[in-house]
Write a structure and sequence with these properties.
The complex is a heterotrimer of chains A (207), B (648) and C (336). Chain A is mainly α and 207 residues long. Chain A has five helices and one strand; from the N terminus they run E-H-H-H-H-H. Chain A has one domain: Four Helix Bundle (Hemerythrin (Met), subunit A) (Up-down Bundle). In chain C, helix 1 crosses helix 2, helix 5 crosses helix 9 and helix 7 crosses helix 9. Classes of the chains: A mainly alpha (207), B mainly alpha (648), C alpha+beta (336). Chains B and C meet through helix 4, helix 8, helix 10, helix 11 and helix 12 of B and helix 2 and helix 3 of C.
């Protein structure tokens, strides 16, 4: 191409494509899904280890006392209920509804506090010690894995809440809010099998 | 509002405008300057090069450790080193080769550098995570060598079985150093796996539909998925091991309901797919080089892709074949034998497709192709001996002998290192802008091939003569001396081959012939970028019209325009058909990933000594992560001004 | 065919024959060798074909143009033919894989065939780094014998090695006789086999078990039923009282030093179980789990400083004057 001479060529103009995209159209959403796949794999293998260790033991739990049902069940109920405001602000985030997302994030932060508080009592009523036997170790590993997720998502929610009251509100923040809600789904949905394993498996496996 | 679609239009292009565009892109995409800039870099070519160089250094270090072993074993009852040192050395050799060379090189390094170029985008997805993953990999490696140099190197084997690695039989910090190294490398590999999957799912150039993705990229995606599903096995097992050792949990203590085989199941759930994680990228390289050097599209594209995917699936049905001797029920033995042998079908498919490509092509014999021919010669032997270890009864005889050592070196060096050197020869001009010397390349290949076979072929024989693995010495009258001496002699040639390669690299960096963008006249998109690629990779993001985009391009093949040039913006496309569907602004350089990696390192290393370090370290880590993700005011207001929201 | 190929591969490998799967001394190892050889021949021939095709392909398809020829689209007819050949090769692969798989299943089945038959049970316990061997013999205490690192078996009799570990994972492997079997803490594994005829075969730990994994060997000594019975009766006896004054003094040394904390000598008060039973030490052909021939010089060196011979092993160095040492060795030599 000589200087000053211009040529015609075909081009694909993408300037009108959106840059605020949600769910499968969003790059970060896929990243979150990838992280969930990894962490879900960890959970699945930990649960498999639980049953493997069970198959190698005569008495399960060795002390005969499974975790108390009250706190774990209460937390499960709170987790499930929390999905309602979560779904609400997730949908509103798609619309860019600032007030709704702010409110949703505040509710999510507060639910997190409730979950963590109940989790504290849950852990006091597991009726086993991680260093007593392999049963205790795997029970604490499962609850420990889940509390790590609960904590990180709660901190993330707090940070996002702050961001939503800062001058940084723009399209990408709503994408973040949408993904934060998706991640909360993951935290809740992984809790259900863990709840069943920790609280009900020892009771069912006795029979 | 206008419709949110990409439109095909005609534009005027002129040299002046191209130059101006290049300057704008350079301005926004270039890595930050200065000493601090080094720690802020986030471009995939920068991080990819660091990965390549670092992993190669670990390869050399582990290779030198192998030399120490070959020296010790050259004579029976030699006490050049005692069992304590030898056991550390063989453990380090295996651990470093597997976790710090093979996986980081074949998967992380190659895919970080090449995949974004091959799919025609400007950076990898999540570039800051990518930088973070590199620093963790580097620090993990430095940590384990630091432990080794103060005589606390891991000494329980690269698999670190319990109870041998339990606190009771392994006091001190050696086993912890191993377990924590695993944590470092798994975080780094998992991060890259997610980046690669997302890069390939969302950032492919328009037109690169699923059935046009280059086989190399397919290979890396399959590998990324395997990393995602396999690594949790070693995450769980090494975490349990650390907890047993530092927090007195009882996972592996049979006296308290624990079980020693649980560790093996979890470890091999990861450990077997690991082998495929290492050589699937190798086979993907072979597919690429064979096509370029037979001057035709690879034969059986679909069969090759399906083979890669099938290998990925079957790999998860094989883990028990490392445990045949543990006394598992015969039924499951049969299942795992069948699964192990079944892997020969996708492997065979690939071999036959390459043979067909070569036989019907116009073959040019240059260094990359020589390495591929060497790959055939060596890897197929490894595949064949794989059948012996898949057969339960035969495995019970050869398992944990030098026969198996020979087998997996034929598989891993054959399946990964030969293609890797081929890849170096092939992509060196792309990375550096200069050609490697053909003459030195041929000689280093020849030395390596001959040295490799002299070193490892006799191991089959000495294994069949009953020599077990992981022995620091052997008796005079065992009849193993001569073969061991041959092996040790072979090591010298092997080493010379690697040395010659290094000399070639150093010479060519300075004096190599200038390569130009596409010295092999190959068909991949990476060859459309400059050599070495500019910081923005492509002046215009290309569009794709075939499996070998440069060979198949129409004369009027369009390019992508309309991306903002004042931010790091790329086009996103749909997963199946790669139709453009959005634009994504990528984060730029920042120091935070480096800081986060330093904090994480302190946390991991500290937890070896005090488990509480995890709790304490999580606070600065959280701060570093907040800094990492916190937007600037300028970014936020700019985006608010011109955001285009997706229509429902 | 199999016998001929067996001899052929033996000739190729010519080597000491007492620790190899390719010189079977019993039916189990023989079955395995047959599958081994089947796989050997199939894979060798397939390999030769693959490499031949590659070599011919490269030679014939080599570009004669100067420089790099332009990429081309292959003739569809040629592609079709190639596809047929690839398909055929795949079918052949599946057939060959099936043959090898079936052979492997049959062999697994055959080698396990002895598991239900009445057998002489021998308990083997893996230790870091030696083998504890117990003949429970119906568990009547008076008929139990304890020994180490040397397993005597009657030839042509079904033997059941019932193994577990006292510490870490070990693997019991005498390749001339059978494949390996792991000895795992918390598990009990059985390995059943027959030995054809009298002879001595070496075995070795095959699972990395720590510092001295390299020197953890054992012998399987197959004897005629009469010889085995004689050996067994001898082993049942407690240690004889020493007849010479040196040996007498040696026994005192043994009992007054730390030795008896770990070792047992039946007939004395020495009852330690952490280390090999020495009641019939002198009847064994090696010491230190196969690391040394059992003779006066080696035994002396071993007692004096085992750490020089097997660094890291549990046997501590023993400081004693030369008289004590000579007497001690004299005593140990009487433990026939």
């Amino acid at each position: 191409m000589a200087a000053g001479v211009s040529q015609r060529r075909l081009a694909l103009d993408v300037s009108r494509l959106p840059d605020v995209t949600f769910a499968i159209r969003s790059v970060t959403w896929w990243g979150t899904i990838g992280m969930m796949a990894i962490e879900g794999g960890v959970f699945a293998l930990a649960v498999a280890s639980y049953f493997y260790l069970h198959s190698r033991t005569d008495r399960w739990p060795p002390t005969g006392h499974p975790p108390d049902l009250l706190w774990g069940s209460l937390n499960t109920a709170v987790f499930l209920l929390s999905l309602i405001p979560t779904e609400w602000y997730r949908r509103r985030a798609h619309k860019g509804d600032l007030r709704a997302v702010r409110l949703g994030l505040i509710i999510a932060s507060l639910t997190g506090v409730v979950n963590l508080t109940i989790r504290y009592f849950e852990m006091k009523h597991l009726n086993c010690n991680w260093s007593g036997d392999a049963y205790g170790s795997i029970v604490w590993l499962l609850i420990g894995l889940h509390i790590t997720h609960l904590l990180t998502d709660w901190v993330e929610t707090l940070v996002l809440t702050v961001l939503f009251f800062s001058p940084h509100v723009e399209g990408k923040r709503f994408v973040d809010a949408e993904e934060n809600a998706s991640y909360w789904y993951f935290v809740v949905l992984t809790w259900i099998p863990i709840y069943l394993v920790l609280y009900w498996a020892p009771r069912w496996l006795v029979g | 509002m206008s419709e949110q679609r990409a439109e095909l239009i005609e534009i005027d292009v002129s040299a002046e405008r191209e130059v101006a565009l290049a300057a704008e892109l350079e301005e926004i995409w270039q890595e930050p300057p200065g000493f601090l800039g080094w720690f802020k870099a986030v471009h995939h070519t920068t991080i990819g090069k660091r990965y390549i160089v670092t992993a190669f250094c670990f390869f050399l270090a582990a290779g030198l450790l192998a030399g120490a072993m070959r020296l010790q074993l050259a004579f029976p009852e030699l006490h050049l080193m005692g069992p304590d040192l030898y056991n550390q050395i063989f453990t380090m050799h295996g651990t470093v080769m597997m976790f710090l060379f093979a996986v980081p090189m074949m998967f992380e390094a190659l895919s970080v550098y090449l995949v974004p170029l091959m799919v025609g985008t400007r950076n990898i997805a999540f570039p800051r995570l990518n930088a973070f993953s590199y620093y963790l990999f580097l620090f993990g490696g430095l940590m384990v060598f630091a432990f080794f140099f103060v005589n606390s190197g891991p000494d329980r084997g690269w698999f670190s079985y319990v109870p041998l690695a339990s606190l009771r039989y392994a006091p001190g910090k050696r086993a912890d150093a191993w377990a924590q190294l695993i944590t470092f490398t798994e975080v780094s590999a998992l991060s890259v796996a997610v980046e690669i999957v997302v890069t390939v799912f969302k950032l492919r150039a328009p037109g690169m539909s699923l059935n046009r993705i280059p086989i190399f990229v397919w290979g890396q995606v399959v590998t990324a998925f395997m990393v995602i599903f396999a690594m949790p096995g070693v995450v769980v097992s090494s975490t349990m091991l650390l907890l047993d050792r530092t927090c007195s949990t009882q996972f592996f203590n049979p006296a308290n309901g624990g079980d020693v085989l649980l560790f093996q199941h979890l470890f091999w759930w990861f450990g077997h797919p690991e082998v495929y994680i290492i050589f699937i990228p190798g086979t993907a390289i072979v597919s690429t080089i064979v096509a370029a050097f037979a001057r035709r599209h690879v034969f059986g594209y679909l069969a090759l892709v399906l083979s890669l995917i099938a290998t990925g699936f079957i790999a998860f049905g094989l883990w028990v074949h490392h445990m045949f001797a543990t006394g598992i029920p015969q039924m499951s033995e049969s299942f795992f034998t069948a699964a192990s042998m079944m892997i020969a079908i996708p492997a065979g498919t690939q071999i036959f497709c390459w043979l067909a490509t070569i036989c019907t092509g116009k073959v040019i014999l240059k260094t990359p192709m020589w390495w591929v021919l060497g790959f055939f010669f060596v890897f197929v032997i490894g595949g064949m001996t794989g059948i012996y270890v898949a057969s339960v009864p035969v495995d019970l005889q050869v398992h944990d002998t030098y026969f198996v050592v020979a087998h997996f070196h034929y598989v891993l060096i054959g399946g990964a290192v030969f293609p890797l050197f081929g890849a170096f020869a092939y992509w060196f001009p792309k990375i550096t802008g200069r050609m490697l010397s053909e003459r030195l390349g041929f000689w280093s290949f020849s030395l390596f091939l001959i040295g490799f076979n002299i070193t490892f072929f006799p191991m089959h024989l000495v294994g069949l003569r009953g020599m077990p693995r992981r022995v620091y010495t052997y008796p005079l009258n065992a009849g193993w001396r001569l073969l061991n001496q041959v092996e040790s002699a072979g090591y010298i040639l092997l080493f010379a081959g690697v040395l010659l390669f290094l000399i070639n690299v150093v010479r060519s960096l300075r004096h190599g012939q200038i390569a130009g963008p596409n010295p092999w006249d190959a068909g991949g998109l990476e060859w459309a970028a400059a050599s070495p690629p500019r910081s923005y990779n492509f002046l215009h993001i290309p569009t794709v019209n075939g499996r070998e985009p440069l060979w198949d391009a129409r004369p009027d093949q369009p390019v992508v325009i309309g991306l903002h040039t004042d931010v790091r913006e790329v086009v996103t496309t749909r997963i199946m058909d790669a139709e453009p569907e959005g634009r994504d602004e990528m984060p730029g350089p920042t120091i935070w990933p480096f800081i986060a990696a330093v904090v994480t390192t302190a946390m991991f290393v500290g937890s070896i000594f005090r488990p509480l370090a995890i709790g304490i370290g999580s606070v600065p880590l959280a701060i570093a992560l907040i800094g990492w993700f916190w937007p600037t005011r300028e970014e936020s207001s700019r985006r608010r001004r011109r955001d285009i929201w997706q229509q429902e | 065919m199999l016998c001929r190929s067996a001899r052929l591969s033996m000739a190729l490998l010519a080597f000491p024959k007492n620790q190899t799967p390719l010189d079977p001394a019993g039916p189990q190892a023989r079955h395995i060798e047959h599958t081994f050889l089947l796989i050997f021949w199939i894979t060798s021939i397939v390999y030769a074909i693959v490499i031949a095709v590659l070599a011919i392909g490269v030679l014939r398809a080599r570009s004669r143009e100067a420089g790099i020829p332009a990429p081309f689209t292959p003739d569809p007819a040629v592609e079709k033919k190639a596809a047929r050949i690839v398909g055929g090769a795949l079918i052949a692969t599946v057939i060959l894989i099936t043959i090898m798989m079936v052979s492997s299943f049959v062999t697994s089945h055959r080698t396990a065939a002895l598991a239900d038959q009445p057998a002489l049970r021998i308990d083997v316990y893996g230790h870091q780094w030696w083998w504890e061997v117990v003949y429970p013999n119906g568990a009547a205490p008076s008929r139990v014998i304890h020994t180490a690192n040397e397993i005597h078996v009657p030839a042509n009799t079904v033997i059941d090695i019932h193994g577990t570990s006292r510490d870490v994972i070990h693997s019991f492997w005498a390749p001339n006789i059978h494949g390996k079997k792991d000895l795992l803490p918390g598990y009990e594994n059985d390995l059943t086999f027959k030995v054809d005829s009298p002879g001595v075969w070496r075995g070795q730990c095959a699972e990395y078990c720590g510092m001295q994994h390299a020197q953890m060997a054992f012998d399987i000594v197959a004897q005629s039923p009469d010889e085995f019975e004689a050996w067994y009766r001898q082993q049942l006896k407690p240690a004889a009282d020493p007849s010479s004054p040196e040996a007498e003094r040696g026994r005192t040394v043994f009992l007054s030093q730390a030795c008896s904390l770990c070792h047992t000598i039946r007939g004395t008060i020495a009852g330690g179980t952490a280390a090999p039973d020495l009641t019939h030490l002198a009847s064994r052909s090696t010491i230190a789990a196969g690391a040394l021939k059992n003779n006066v010089a080696n035994l002396t060196a071993w007692v004096l400083d085992a750490q020089k011979i097997k660094p890291g092993c549990r046997m501590p160095p023993n400081l004693m004057n030369s008289t004590d040492l000579n007497d001690l060795i004299a005593y140990l030599e009487t433990l026939q």
